[in-house]
Write a structure and sequence with these properties.
This protein is of the alpha+beta class. The protein has two domains: 11-105, TATA-Binding Protein, CATH 3.30.310; 114-185, TATA-Binding Protein (2-Layer Sandwich). The chain is 26% helix and 33% strand. The protein is built from four helices and ten strands; from the N terminus they run βαββββαβαββββα. It has helices spanning 23-29, 70-86, 120-127, 168-185, and strands spanning 6-16, 34-35, 42-48, 51-57, 61-67, 104-113, 131-132, 140-145, 150-155, 159-163. It has a ten-stranded antiparallel beta sheet with strand order 2-3-4-5-1-6-10-9-8-7, with helices on one face. β8 (140-145) and β9 form a beta hairpin. The longest helix has 18 residues, at 168-185.
């Protein structure tokens, strides 16, 4: 198989930054934070560098979205923790550079362009029970990959979107599974 460029579009991560947050205090003191408890019990905060959005929850967890590189995640969490501490909001984030923050990756969203048309009818016939295709409802094949557990959205223009991998190895495996199945279906020449 030839090398296909896969682009990470978003990584969703979670980490506990405190034993708990008083969301009204965070919303009031963290400059640029958005807090509207009538709409949602969470504080939204956007970092500019690295560009990321955080959702801070009452239980002390912070969900991060918007980053495209794994190596940016810990730096973004530490920067948020520093901003919170600067505003007098205590965190449990390790203060030493050599101490790692416990971060869980919940989802990686990625895409690739095969630069060729994909025969969706052939694809869905080979994937059988693992795929859905109803062009009146959705213009692509929804392929539920069993291992690694993830989903690929396959479009006739040659684009494929992935969601569900929890690390880069799982993403690589999902890409390989899709490419192998498309090739065996005769839907593309990889």
């Amino acid at each position: 198989m030839s090398m296909v460029k896969v682009k990470v579009d978003n990584i969703v991560a979670t980490s506990r930054l405190a034993e708990g947050f008083d969301l009204s205090v965070v919303g009031e003191h963290l400059i640029g934070a958005a807090y509207n408890p009538d709409q949602f019990e969470g504080v939204l905060y956007k970092l500019l560098d690295p560009k990321a959005a955080f959702l801070l929850l009452k239980n002390g967890k912070a969900i991060c979205t918007g980053l495209k590189k794994m190596e940016q995640i810990e730096a973004a969490y530490k920067k948020l923790s520093e901003l919170l501490e600067k505003e007098g909001i205590s965190t449990t984030t390790p203060k030493e550079d050599d101490e790692a923050l416990e971060i869980g990756i919940k989802n990686i969203v990625a895409s690739m362009d095969l630069a060729q048309e994909i025969d969706l009818e052939m694809t869905v016939n080979v994937l059988e029970n693992d795929a859905e295709y109803d062009p009146e409802l959705f213009p692509g094949v929804i392929y539920h990959i069993k291992e690694p557990r993830s989903t690929a959205l396959i479009f006739s223009a040659g684009k494929v979107a992935f969601t569900g991998p929890k690390d880069m190895d799982e993403l690589k495996q999902a890409v390989e599974v899709v490419l192998e199945n498309l090739e065996s279906a005769g839907a593309v020449v990889v």
